[in-house]
């Protein structure tokens, strides 16, 4: 009798798995766009870490300069090269942000196409195109705000005259306050699109 208390959970077959062979159509575009979005996040993280190293060097150089007897000189030697490196990092982060915008636009185009065709079914197992649009929009918004903060830091860090401000800029760069932890949602997207098994 105890055997009949529970019934097995049945999950509908994925529309993507019904076809044999390579994905085509909307599932293929969603799959590729999801891979692109994940790669953008990884690329951002790599550039962010490079930026952390540059920010640390700038802060160490500026703090040493501010505490030295040579503080009457406006900028210490080597600062310009470090600022140029930080400019390169910010430029790469901007490129990543533009790629995220492209991915979001792909998802939105697919959503509009589905709306025109009156389709509201999951692309794979559970996520409709709308969920991909929502996640990519959230990621784009967070990364855009974070890039604006990083650009502000880049423009001001060389000119600050107070150690406290340098340490604040350093902490803000490292902590990325505008980027929430979306690991769970990104992992769910990767599982949904079969990019992660």
UniProtKB/TrEMBL annotation:
UniProt-listed InterPro entries: Cyclin-dep_Kinase_2_interact
Domain of life per record: Eukaryota
Protein name stated in the entry: Uncharacterized protein
Upper taxonomic lineage: Eukaryota, Metazoa, Ecdysozoa, Arthropoda, Hexapoda
């Amino acid at each position: 009798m105890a055997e009949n208390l529970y019934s097995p959970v049945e999950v509908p077959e994925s529309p993507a798995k019904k076809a044999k062979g390579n994905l085509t159509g909307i599932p293929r575009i969603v799959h590729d766009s999801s891979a692109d979005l994940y790669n953008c996040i990884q690329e951002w993280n790599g550039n962010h870490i490079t930026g952390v190293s540059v920010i640390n060097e700038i802060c160490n150089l500026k703090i040493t300069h501010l505490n030295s007897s040579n503080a009457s000189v406006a900028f210490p030697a080597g600062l310009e090269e470090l600022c140029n490196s930080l400019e390169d990092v910010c430029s790469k982060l901007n490129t990543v942000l533009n790629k995220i915008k492209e991915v979001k636009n792909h998802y939105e185009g697919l959503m509009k196409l589905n709306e025109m065709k009156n389709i509201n079914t999951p692309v794979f197992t559970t996520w409709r195109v709308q969920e991909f649009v929502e996640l990519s929009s959230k990621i784009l918004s967070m990364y855009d705000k974070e890039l604006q903060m990083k650009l502000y830091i880049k423009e001001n860090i060389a000119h600050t005259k107070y150690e406290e401000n340098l340490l604040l800029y350093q902490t803000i760069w490292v902590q990325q306050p505008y980027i929430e932890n979306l690991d769970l949602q990104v992992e769910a997207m990767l599982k949904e699109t079969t990019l992660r098994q």
